[in-house]
Amino acid sequence: MLDASVAKRKFNDQPFAYHAELELDIVTLTNLGSGLGRVALPGESEAKWVVMVPFALPGERVRVRVFRNHKNFSEADLVAVLSPSPARVAASCPLFGRCGGCQYQHLAYPEQLAWKQRQVAELLQHMAGVEFPVAPVIASPREFGYRSKITPHFNEPREGQPLPIGFLRQGTRFDILDVPHCPIATPAINDRLALLRADVLARRASYTRGATLLLREASGEVTTDHEAVITETVGDLKLRFRARDFFQNNPFILPAFTGYVRAQAAASGARFLVDAYCGSGLFALTAAPAFERVTGVEISESSIVFARQNAAANGITNATFQAGDAATIFAGLNFAPADTTVIIDPPRKGCDESFLGQLFAFGPRAVVYVSCDPATQMRDLKQFLATGYVLTAVQPFDLFPQTRHLECVITLRRP
After folding, report:
1. For residue 174, with 0-12 CB atoms within 10 Å meaning exposed, 13-18 middle and 19 or more buried, which class applies?
2. Is 372 a catalytic residue?
3. Which residue in 102, 182, 372, 408 is the catalytic one?
4. Answer CATH for 112-142+232-413 from 3.40.50.150, 3.40.980.10, 3.40.50.1000, 3.90.320.10
């Protein structure tokens, strides 16, 4: 947050004054994890004006303090819960509400899953214009202690000032909150975090700028070296990749997650599989036994090297990998489209127009679309539907308990 005096000077005071206090009922959760309620504006009888309140839950009556007015809604801090939800629980982390990492520690885990399912259904309806049954969210085997990678930060050390090492403070872009222990990280990472923090503080005079640290656990070992090559076990497979590379950060749910993707891809009856954002081979290699031939495509050449090594190390002989230019990702592929399923797992921003154009021109029998951002996934879904694909399954997975984030897998087929 801005300093209070600066924030007040910059504040738009319509429709509410700076730090005006309101009472309202929370009716739903946004896809950012905030409670949403409505109030009547001065001179109006109907409660239409939207107020977003982090850490407030549906069914609660709350007192809030407005800190920002937008064109058609306000944002407010939670001051008091006047009537708590039956689903409200005590957060296990003493920093909850101040740390920006978690949004749902105050919400019972079964209710977290129910709300995530509902949010996917609402995004389907509002962004893609589709009414479709969303399967219940597959829960993480661990509600806490599941995260196998964290990246604490610190800003430039200043003489005579404390040096917070942790994550962004809730509601801010630059203010770092000191986090000595993170309950959603694995126990091994927290043990190593204490040592790493002590080392940074002991050498703080050697830092001339801020930095981002890395702690990553795989197969029981924790590394802080961005370039270290580590091995993650997924079912019967052992997959190697660099610690800094993208890889799913909840290993405990990965067997169920990859197993579902494989089953959906194979259910199309296709003989061939293309993994179009294959990385070091997670989906391609876990699905390979269900297909005659598999090809993984990835822009990163270093990831392709690891994917090939992982195939060889696991005795998988029907999978090949190629580094593909973003503009020609399906060029040279000799699979018949009508006998091919494509798995896509794009970045959070979703698929770009160039990729979708190439995918639709190729025209595979089925597509299994994995996404860490259902909003961009549903945006892309509209183009699949317009091109003639039919939605056959929507399955969310809770890879990120206690947070607003989730993974969603949708399956599409040509009629």
Report:
1. exposed
2. yes
3. 372
4. 3.40.50.150
